Amino acid sequence: MISTRRLATLALALGLLLVGACGKQQKDDRIVLGFSQIGAESEWRTANTESIKSAATTSNIDLRFADAQQKQENQIKALRSFIAQKVDVIAFSPVVETGWETVLKEAKNAGIPVILTDR
């Protein structure tokens, strides 16, 4: 099992990557990150979520979080919501491997980078 410290380090690294990867920013210079998590089906996933939230706070990132509750349709709705909000970057842990083509094209057309995350 991965330690909380290691998860926090990973989340912080993701946050720093996002800081360097994004060109457009809000007026207050905070990066707006839309993140859709699979859910909280395990202690690992819950710790992962908390690490991401902590790293976002530490890195002064405006985190928009969505819990998909184990459903792909919820993640797709969340990603479309992030696109409509014009976030700077989207990250998500996909609940399934396929079926993302359309929403990923929508993000690409909006000029929003997407980062897939998971273990």
Please explain how this structure is put together.
The protein has 119 residues and is an alpha/beta fold. It has a single domain (4-116), classed as Response regulator (Rossmann fold), CATH 3.40.50. 48% of the residues lie in helices and 16% in strands. The protein is built from four helices and four strands. The chain has helices spanning 4-21, 43-58, 72-85, 101-109, and strands at 32-37, 62-67, 89-92, 114-116. Strands 2-1-3-4 form a four-stranded parallel sheet, with helices on both faces. Helix 2 (43-58) links the parallel strand 1 and strand 2 (62-67). It starts with a helix and ends with a strand.
Brief overview:
The chain has 119 residues and is an alpha/beta fold. The protein is built from 4 helices and 4 strands.
Sheet/helix structural class: alpha/beta
Quote the distance from N terminus to C terminus: 11 Å
- What's the average pLDDT? 84
DSSP, total strands: 4
Order of helices and strands: HEHEHEHE
- Specify the overall morphology: flat
Query: Radius of gyration from the CA trace?
Result: 14 Å
State the CATH architecture: 3-Layer(aba) Sandwich
Instruction: State the helicity in percent bands.
Output: 40-55%
Count of discrete structural domains: 1
Strand residue content:
15-25%
Q: Under the CATH scheme, which class?
A: Alpha Beta
Report the CATH topology name: Rossmann fold
Assembly state (oligomeric): single chain
Biggest beta-sheet profile: 4 strands, parallel
Q: Number of DSSP helices?
A: 4
CATH superfamily: Response regulator
* Neighbour order of strands in the largest sheet: 2-1-3-4
Low-confidence stretches: 5-10
